[in-house]
Design goal:
alpha+beta
Amino acid sequence: MSDRETLIEFPCRFPVKVMGDAHPELMEAVEGCVAEHLDPDDAVIEQRASRAGRYVGITITFTATSQEQLDAFYRSLGRCDRVRMIL
């Protein structure tokens, strides 16, 4: 367990939103992060293009089991070149 306190009660359903360039590499990178840190059978991935089609918003909803899991998942997504923002 981390020394950092959290207000989240685990396990819980948790959405992570990723925004990035509309490029096939973005979805490939996100799916790779999901496979590395989450149960792919549990994760629901939704994708929506921006109005102009230049950017894509991706929402990954999954059962989070710990703060460490969330931290590792966010760090992994942050290393993706096509990702512009993670919420």
